[in-house]
Amino acid sequence: VQLVESGGGSVQSGESLRLSCAASEYTFSGSSMAWFRQAPGKEREGVANIDGHDVSRYAHSVKDRFTISRDNAKNTIYLQMNSLKSEDTALYYCAAGGWTYWGQGTQVTVS
Length: 111
Hints:
four-stranded antiparallel sheet, seven-stranded mixed sheet, about 50% strand, globular
């Protein structure tokens, strides 16, 4: 199983980014997927997850600003991040398989 994140970058506060996570060698459709993040000196935290029925859940800190979605045809999940804040700065990871599988992460820096 391979999970490859992309879409990170450096933006100004208030701007937007969209992260992508492409899965390979994995039964994507119907499975739960998630985004986590880890800021320097802090523990990894869950940001959002989406189950096989497209029900999504969010951390309180990102609710109403971030949106998780999936495209089963492309074996890809997305994280649309709007109104970014400096506290959103972190390395963002996607996870699958009951969080057994992890990507390498993509850096988001908000200044």
